[in-house]
Backbone:
């Protein structure tokens, strides 16, 4: 494992499964370095899932330069569930956010998400997304700010790029199915929705950018 943050007051842990992401990985990592939230208040946990390109070396480079980055290298698991669970076991933040390795954050994203979650008492936060590179994003959830919505309102938003209160996940033992399980992220998100007391939708700014890769994958 490369890198370790030393501060115990981590507000949010960003968990990233990484497999052969290539140059797009730097865009994500740079967007995390640029966060307005103080670096002692967040950590980045990247799980290199047996990459065969230079993704592992890129992660080590960032961990060497930025103390809030932590990197684990493991043999390929074949699916993102296991790396996400491993990152969750390592997480120390009040909240966790599951990012994809080819996406990116706006620079105020972590600061604003954690502030809103603290103010609203949120267990799950859906931040406004924007698609890039031809990626379509359903924006109907983000037409206005919602401090608390019901499961029926957000039930079709099952992608994992959300912020979750870690204590809730631990109390209800919510984890991603491991192995090649279809819709494993949706299973995780739906369990979290039903466990949550407060689900919030943030629509004031764009928090997260979803990308379609050149190879056609998301």
Residues:
């Amino acid at each position: 494992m490369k890198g370790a943050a030393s501060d115990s007051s981590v507000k949010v842990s960003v968990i990233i499964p990484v497999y052969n992401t290539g140059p797009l990985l730097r865009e994500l990592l740079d967007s995390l370095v640029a966060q307005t939230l103080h670096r002692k208040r967040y950590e980045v946990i990247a799980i290199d899932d047996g990459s065969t390109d230079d993704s592992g070396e890129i992660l080590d480079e960032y961990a060497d330069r930025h103390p809030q980055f932590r990197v684990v290298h493991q043999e390929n698991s074949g699916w993102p569930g296991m790396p996400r669970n491993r990152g969750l076991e390592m997480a120390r933040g009040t909240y966790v956010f599951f990012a994809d390795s080819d996406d990116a954050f706006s620079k105020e994203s972590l600061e604003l998400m954690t502030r809103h979650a603290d103010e609203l008492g949120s267990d799950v936060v859906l931040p406004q997304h924007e698609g890039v590179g031809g990626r379509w994003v359903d924006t109907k959830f983000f037409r206005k700010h919602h401090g608390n919505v019901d499961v029926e309102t957000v039930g079709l938003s099952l992608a994992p790029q959300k912020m979750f209160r870690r204590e809730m996940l631990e109390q209800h033992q919510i984890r991603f199915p491991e192995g090649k399980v279809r819709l494993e992220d949706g299973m995780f998100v739906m369990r979290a929705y039903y466990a949550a007391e407060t689900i919030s939708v943030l629509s004031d700014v764009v928090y997260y950018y979803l990308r379609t890769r050149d190879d056609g994958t998301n």
